[in-house]
Design a protein that fits this description.
Blueprint: E1 7-16, E2 22-25, E3 32-35, H1 43-49, E4 57-62, E5 76-80, E6 95-100, E7 103-112, E8 116-120, E9 130-141, H2 144-149
Antiparallel strand pairs: 1-2, 1-3, 1-9, 4-9, 5-8, 6-7, 7-8
Length: about 160
Protein backbone atom coordinates (compact mmCIF):
# COMPACT_ATOMS: atom_id res chain seq x y z
CA UNK A 1 0.00 0.00 0.00
CA UNK A 2 1.83 3.15 -1.16
CA UNK A 3 1.87 6.09 1.26
CA UNK A 4 -0.69 8.76 0.38
CA UNK A 5 -2.94 11.27 2.15
CA UNK A 6 -4.99 9.96 5.09
CA UNK A 7 -2.80 6.94 5.75
CA UNK A 8 -1.08 6.16 9.02
CA UNK A 9 2.66 5.57 8.62
CA UNK A 10 4.92 3.96 11.22
CA UNK A 11 8.63 4.39 10.64
CA UNK A 12 11.98 4.31 12.39
CA UNK A 13 14.53 7.00 11.65
CA UNK A 14 17.89 8.38 12.52
CA UNK A 15 18.83 11.94 11.70
CA UNK A 16 22.35 13.25 11.19
CA UNK A 17 23.68 16.80 10.97
CA UNK A 18 25.97 18.26 8.29
CA UNK A 19 29.03 16.67 9.91
CA UNK A 20 27.43 13.20 9.94
CA UNK A 21 26.80 13.19 13.70
CA UNK A 22 23.61 11.31 14.64
CA UNK A 23 21.45 13.76 16.62
CA UNK A 24 18.32 11.59 17.01
CA UNK A 25 17.52 7.90 16.56
CA UNK A 26 14.18 6.19 17.13
CA UNK A 27 15.53 2.64 16.88
CA UNK A 28 15.44 0.88 20.21
CA UNK A 29 12.07 2.49 20.96
CA UNK A 30 8.64 2.68 19.38
CA UNK A 31 8.47 3.71 15.72
CA UNK A 32 7.25 7.21 14.92
CA UNK A 33 3.59 7.33 13.80
CA UNK A 34 2.00 10.13 11.79
CA UNK A 35 -1.02 10.80 9.60
CA UNK A 36 0.28 11.45 6.08
CA UNK A 37 -0.80 14.69 4.42
CA UNK A 38 -1.68 16.54 7.63
CA UNK A 39 1.62 18.33 8.40
CA UNK A 40 2.53 16.13 11.36
CA UNK A 41 6.18 15.89 10.27
CA UNK A 42 8.51 18.26 8.45
CA UNK A 43 7.61 18.88 4.81
CA UNK A 44 10.80 17.49 3.27
CA UNK A 45 10.39 14.19 5.08
CA UNK A 46 6.69 13.90 4.25
CA UNK A 47 7.44 14.58 0.56
CA UNK A 48 10.15 11.88 0.58
CA UNK A 49 7.75 9.32 2.12
CA UNK A 50 4.96 9.95 -0.44
CA UNK A 51 4.36 6.89 -2.63
CA UNK A 52 6.69 4.55 -0.72
CA UNK A 53 5.66 1.20 0.83
CA UNK A 54 6.06 -0.64 4.12
CA UNK A 55 9.40 -2.45 4.23
CA UNK A 56 11.28 0.23 2.26
CA UNK A 57 14.41 1.87 3.65
CA UNK A 58 15.95 5.02 2.19
CA UNK A 59 18.02 8.10 2.96
CA UNK A 60 16.92 11.67 2.28
CA UNK A 61 18.65 15.02 2.89
CA UNK A 62 16.35 17.86 3.96
CA UNK A 63 17.39 21.52 3.69
CA UNK A 64 16.18 24.11 6.24
CA UNK A 65 13.46 25.45 3.90
CA UNK A 66 11.74 22.04 3.99
CA UNK A 67 12.89 21.18 7.52
CA UNK A 68 12.83 23.33 10.63
CA UNK A 69 13.27 26.66 8.84
CA UNK A 70 16.11 29.17 8.93
CA UNK A 71 17.62 30.35 12.21
CA UNK A 72 16.22 33.69 13.31
CA UNK A 73 18.72 36.00 14.98
CA UNK A 74 15.97 37.86 16.87
CA UNK A 75 14.59 34.71 18.54
CA UNK A 76 16.08 35.38 22.01
CA UNK A 77 13.47 35.98 24.73
CA UNK A 78 13.80 36.65 28.45
CA UNK A 79 11.54 34.42 30.56
CA UNK A 80 11.15 33.83 34.30
CA UNK A 81 13.22 30.80 35.34
CA UNK A 82 10.16 29.36 37.10
CA UNK A 83 8.58 28.85 33.64
CA UNK A 84 11.40 26.56 32.46
CA UNK A 85 10.60 22.86 32.76
CA UNK A 86 13.01 19.94 32.70
CA UNK A 87 15.65 20.65 35.36
CA UNK A 88 16.10 22.22 38.78
CA UNK A 89 19.28 24.19 37.98
CA UNK A 90 19.80 25.74 34.56
CA UNK A 91 23.02 26.36 32.66
CA UNK A 92 23.62 27.80 29.19
CA UNK A 93 23.35 25.14 26.49
CA UNK A 94 20.63 23.15 28.23
CA UNK A 95 17.30 22.46 26.51
CA UNK A 96 14.22 23.53 28.46
CA UNK A 97 10.54 23.19 27.78
CA UNK A 98 8.22 26.19 28.10
CA UNK A 99 4.46 26.41 27.76
CA UNK A 100 3.33 28.76 24.96
CA UNK A 101 -0.02 29.72 23.45
CA UNK A 102 0.71 27.06 20.78
CA UNK A 103 1.49 24.39 23.39
CA UNK A 104 4.79 23.14 24.84
CA UNK A 105 7.97 24.21 23.04
CA UNK A 106 11.64 23.36 23.46
CA UNK A 107 14.08 26.25 23.85
CA UNK A 108 17.84 26.52 24.27
CA UNK A 109 18.99 28.25 27.45
CA UNK A 110 21.42 31.00 26.36
CA UNK A 111 22.03 32.90 29.62
CA UNK A 112 20.87 32.41 33.22
CA UNK A 113 20.34 35.12 35.83
CA UNK A 114 18.84 34.97 39.34
CA UNK A 115 15.18 35.16 38.30
CA UNK A 116 15.24 35.24 34.50
CA UNK A 117 16.85 33.30 31.68
CA UNK A 118 17.47 34.31 28.08
CA UNK A 119 16.29 31.49 25.81
CA UNK A 120 16.69 30.90 22.10
CA UNK A 121 13.26 30.00 20.69
CA UNK A 122 14.60 28.69 17.38
CA UNK A 123 13.97 24.98 16.95
CA UNK A 124 17.24 23.23 17.92
CA UNK A 125 17.56 22.00 14.32
CA UNK A 126 16.62 25.27 12.62
CA UNK A 127 19.06 26.36 9.92
CA UNK A 128 20.53 22.87 9.60
CA UNK A 129 20.62 20.55 6.61
CA UNK A 130 19.66 17.13 7.97
CA UNK A 131 20.03 13.62 6.60
CA UNK A 132 17.37 11.08 7.58
CA UNK A 133 17.80 7.31 7.37
CA UNK A 134 14.24 5.95 7.19
CA UNK A 135 12.80 2.44 7.60
CA UNK A 136 9.05 2.24 6.89
CA UNK A 137 7.53 -0.30 9.29
CA UNK A 138 3.82 -0.16 8.44
CA UNK A 139 1.26 1.72 6.34
CA UNK A 140 -2.48 1.48 6.97
CA UNK A 141 -5.61 3.48 6.16
CA UNK A 142 -6.50 6.01 8.86
CA UNK A 143 -9.90 5.69 10.48
CA UNK A 144 -12.49 8.47 10.29
CA UNK A 145 -11.73 9.73 13.81
CA UNK A 146 -7.99 10.01 13.09
CA UNK A 147 -8.71 11.97 9.91
CA UNK A 148 -11.15 14.26 11.75
CA UNK A 149 -8.62 14.90 14.53
CA UNK A 150 -5.67 15.22 12.14
CA UNK A 151 -3.43 12.78 14.03
CA UNK A 152 -2.88 9.07 14.76
CA UNK A 153 -4.62 7.31 17.64
CA UNK A 154 -3.39 4.16 19.36
CA UNK A 155 0.23 2.92 19.46
CA UNK A 156 2.64 5.71 18.51
CA UNK A 157 -0.18 8.28 18.41
CA UNK A 158 -2.54 10.10 20.80
CA UNK A 159 -5.40 9.07 23.13
Amino acid sequence: MPIEKNQVVLFHYSVSDEQGNVVEDSRGGEPNAYLHGHGGIIRGLEEALEGRDAGESFTVTVTPDKGYGPRKDDAIQRVPIKHLMGAKRWKPGMIAQVQTEQGPRHVLVAKVGHKFADVDTNHPMAGRTLTFDIEIIDVRPADAEEIAHGHVHGPGGHH
